[in-house]
Amino acid sequence: MKVVLRNPRREVEVDGPLRVQVLLDRLGLNREAHLVVRNATLVPGDEVLDDGDVVEIRPVISGGSGS
Amino acid sequence: MKCRVCRGPAVIDLPRHNANFCGPHLIEHCRRQVVKAIDDHRMLEPEERVLVAVSGGKDSLALWDLLTELGYAADGLYLGLGIGDYSAASGDTARAFAADRGLKLREIDLRAEFGYDVPTAAAATRRVPCSSCGLSKRHLFDRAALDDGYAVVATGHNLDDEAAVLFGNTLRWDVEYLARQLPVLPARDGFPRKVKPLVRLSERETAAYCIVRGIDYLVEECPMAAGNRHLGYKEALNAVEQRSPGTKAAFYLGFLERMAPRLVEESAAAQGGLASCATCGAPTTGTVCAFCRLVETAAAHDPVPVELVRPGRPGRRAS
Fold it and tell me: Would you call A41 and B134 a contact, using CB atoms and an 8 Å cutoff?
């Protein structure tokens, strides 16, 4: 499957099928800091992703002064 | 996974709440958390005019959407910070959101109205970009609210933001800052009331809310913020959260419930007496306020493109 990562934008190919949580673990990404979107729809951690899917892993952490 | 409420297919799992939600019930969950924050901390009255600080990111757009959906009369204010392509894209995003919904968006451009931008201010002051950015936002949102008759300024600070700031203040035992780290700052001495209605929602929840609601927010992060200390604190807290869901909420909401009340005297002592800025009239502890001093320094500096300011460093030029 094609996995699109952001900030900076890049793409990686990952073999499926595999669960969302396994994909995040394999890429070393924290569940708390990311959402996974397939075909413009959010998918939860136990969703199985297949080889034909295009998946976006969207970071949710914002920076700034925090003031 | 099934939605905890309707047993339909879930779109998100929230370990902190030991719950999964479908799209409609995620929206309901977010609204409920915002209503609870507003009620618990007496943030807003039903008829009050609210000025929302809008950046084009997920939190400010989710906040504007939530307040509008809850029936509040909320207008937006966008600040043009002059951070290259990032500011251009964030402004477009905020304008599109407002136009699609028929909402009123005011704009202030730092370069056009005050003769500086954030990259230039960072270079001129030799401080991190977030310093002049935060100072500019606080001053201009306060002033706009008072000038235009808004009772309150609402910002999109979420649970992760507040937990990270609390973490930093605690690591340094900065009691004065700890005493002021509240979701509501009452109006006083020339300051409008300031509220943070998203403090019960994590960043993951506000981002998910935007996706489910079809809100097109700017996903790209500010290039000036990369590598700053605040982001480091968030990473540290998320590492703990992944192992122990609920830790961030227990840390911050527990602080509000059990520690903040013990700091009330400290907070009152820290407020002290304020004079009026000799230049703009804003409240200040000195003769001229920090914002007017920043304008004087930054506007006198040659413009510095964003590419020449190293993020997370004190305004040094890249070699």
Answer: no
